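ok, trying the design again with the full structure, not the truncated one.
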């Protein structure tokens, strides 16, 4: 056999081996369904830190409730309070307020915010419709006073951007501001919180303030120390992610 024949056979053997390996690799990478591989992206996370500062002298605040939602409001001046808002404004209980049908994400501070102190609530969502936020807290040495804001557009906030507000006090209009013994849930009285019966104007308005026993309301359990000026709270939201 000639040297040329041996070289040719050797080359053919190498070509056959390369072809076989290529076919094997092709078989390993074959997609039986012939469908393109779809990679699902990880949903973007939207995270915020909401900080409340109690600016009053002797009005502890109930745990701050924070909600992310679409374009709507949880209360309107001149409209009747929802039962969920009534429970928050009369007794400081934000459970129903946070779980209402418009909520896309909700969070609450751990406890009471004492005068002169602050508390931060962290809240996150991957829902792209959660472009508005609401926050609310009760002034617990009152019958049904609360403070907060609702339906605030945060859709354009960038990471590390901050917005702040100094906020006045609302009256839920669900309980008369009698300041009487047994009607104030805070430490000034330790009385009843939420009562389903409504004995006031039955619409949200701006609170006229505490009268107190020192200013002529002899049946009041409150003193001048429990009076408050507006703004009663400072609220800050920062986008963190």
């Amino acid at each position: 056999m000639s040297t040329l024949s041996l070289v040719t056979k050797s080359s053919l053997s190498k070509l056959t081996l390369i072809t076989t390996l290529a076919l094997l690799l092709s078989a390993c990478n074959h997609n039986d369904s012939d469908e393109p591989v779809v990679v699902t992206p990880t949903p973007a996370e939207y995270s915020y830190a909401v900080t409340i500062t109690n600016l009053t002298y002797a009005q502890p605040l109930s745990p701050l409730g924070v909600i992310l939602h679409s374009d709507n409001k949880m209360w309107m001046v001149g409209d009747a309070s929802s039962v969920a808002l009534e429970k928050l404004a009369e007794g400081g209980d934000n459970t129903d307020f946070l779980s209402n049908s418009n909520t896309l994400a909700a969070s609450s501070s751990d406890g009471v915010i004492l005068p002169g102190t602050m508390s931060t609530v962290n809240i996150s969502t991957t829902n792209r419709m959660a472009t508005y936020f609401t926050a609310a807290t009760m002034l617990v040495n009152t019958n049904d006073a609360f403070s907060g804001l609702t339906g605030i557009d945060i859709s354009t906030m960038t990471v590390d951007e901050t917005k702040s507000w100094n906020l006045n006090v609302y009256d839920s209009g669900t309980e008369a501001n009698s300041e009487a013994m047994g009607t104030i849930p805070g430490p000034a009285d330790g009385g009843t919180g939420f009562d389903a019966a409504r004995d006031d104007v039955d619409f949200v308005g701006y609170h006229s303030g505490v009268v107190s026993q020192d200013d002529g309301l002899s049946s009041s359990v409150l003193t001048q120390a429990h009076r408050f000026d507006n703004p009663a709270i400072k609220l800050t939201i920062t986008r963190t992610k």
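Keeping the full-length input from now on. The longest strand covers residues 46-54.
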